[in-house]
Design goal:
This protein has 14 helices and eight strands. The protein is an alpha/beta fold.
Length: 329
């Protein structure tokens, strides 16, 4: 497989993945929107997101725009989930025909309720979608710290080709053919991370947080199976691995957002402070709608949705969850 790839998205995760692919042997073109960021990477090799902590590999060339993208066989799309559709259209669907498109955002599209690969299938039906997911923070990957993730594709053979392309000395993808399960796990874990952060922010204790994570894991399994994924996928990196990390670390944007909600702030107050909107805020109402459409009981997702809407406080929600009918596990 051609080892020249394009990474679309010049944020922290895009730069980190470009660096990881480069030290794994790829020649990488990083497409961003900020000329200053591109110049910084090209001239000093500094990572604009972590300037004192990480350098960008020499095989990464940064640019503004998508010039030349039609010549690459593999493209990593590293933009927020709600922006994927527009970015694909901006690139031009004719340039993406027959390409391998590795989707690196973890989220469900508002309005359409679609997974990222479903957006690709709609816009570029002859492209080959893949999903990169699992426990990974941009700073760790940018600093070449050991990171293992899941790379899912339409088949194991196709996924292994992308795994071989992206794998490096510190970045280890594991192949999967459960594209549905991997995508859903990546999106849904953000919802539970909001809830876990809120429990911590409200100082309800580690026991409550651990219970939420465990019951969230079971709830996620029911929904993933109902939507066509495999519950077995959740036992790996894309499921349990990512869920555990996102629900326990303040470095997780969703966990931090939930922490502030639990501490008493509203969504608007958090945004007014300059914080970026966590992807789970978008995915929560989508996940709830998908669950309702498929007859799946998801009390934790429902509770997180109510918290985001500002209808109740976290302590009231936990009390309601604790008052649910007793049942076997």
């Amino acid at each position: 497989m051609d080892n020249a790839i394009f990474v679309v998205g010049g944020g922290a995760w895009g730069v980190a993945l470009a660096h990881a692919a480069a030290i794994g042997g790829c020649t990488v073109t990083l497409c961003g929107r900020d000329q200053e960021v591109a110049d910084t990477i090209n001239h000093t090799r500094a990572n604009p997101q972590f300037p004192t902590l990480a350098k960008v590999d020499q095989k990464v060339t940064a640019q503004v725009g998508y010039a030349g993208i039609e010549h690459a066989q593999t493209i990593l799309l590293v933009v927020p989930a709600q922006a994927s559709r527009q970015v694909l259209m901006d690139i031009g669907v004719e340039k993406l025909a027959s390409k391998n498109i590795v989707l690196c955002a973890k989220g469900l599209e508002q309005g359409t309720l679609k997974r990222q690969s479903e957006i690709v299938a709609e816009l570029v039906p002859n492209a080959v979608p893949f999903s990169l997911s699992g426990p990974s923070f941009a700073i760790d990957v940018a600093q070449s710290k050991p990171t293992a993730v899941t790379l899912a594709g339409p088949s194991l053979e196709q996924a292994r080709q992308i795994v071989d392309l992206l794998a490096g000395p510190t970045f280890r993808p594991y192949s999967s053919d459960d594209l549905v399960g991997v995508e859903l796990a990546g999106a849904l874990k953000n919802i539970y991370a909001l809830g876990a952060g809120a429990v911590e922010g409200a100082n309800l204790g580690f026991s409550a947080r651990s219970s939420l994570i465990a019951r969230g894991f079971a709830e996620m399994g029911r929904l993933v199976e109902a939507l066509g994924g495999s519950a077995a996928t959740l036992n790996g990196l894309a499921g349990l691995g990512d869920l555990t990390m996102s629900c326990t670390a303040r470095e997780s944007r969703n966990y931090e957002f939930g922490y502030r909600l639990g501490a008493g702030e509203t969504v608007q107050q958090i945004l007014d402070s300059g914080a970026k909107l966590a992807e789970g805020v978008f995915s929560t109402p989508v996940g709830l709608k998908l669950a309702h459409q498929n007859g799946v009981d998801v009390p934790i997702i429902g509770a997180v949705n109510a918290l985001l809407d500002g209808k109740v406080t976290i302590d009231v929600l936990v009390s309601k969850l604790m008052a649910r009918p007793l049942r076997s596990e």
